[in-house]
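Researcher: Here's the sequence for the chain we discussed earlier.
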Amino acid sequence: MRERNSRVAIDQLPTELLAIIFHASLEAVENRFKGLHTLASVAWLWQNIVRGTPGLWAVIDRRIPTEQLPVFIQRSKGAPLRFAIDEKASPEYLSRNSPRDDAAFLDMVLPEI
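Model: Thanks. This is the structure I predict for it:
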């Protein structure tokens, strides 16, 4: 399977270019966590690029499950963290996340900045 995927035209692009494309595509998705998971699920090469590109993990979004925050911070490998704040959060999202959840989120992230 890997051999077949390596012949796909997009996989002939340099890794650095694919990482730039991944960055741009993640800016357009509503849920960065799901977007990273989707990209990493496409092919073995893409999974390696996603896991090995610190900048893809350096955007901290409140939608990232709290238990996944350490993974994002570890994989960001010291890259400057950027916080994405969704000012258009749906009422359903707001009702599922209490101020206590926000405090736990900040407790995990603040020591890293």
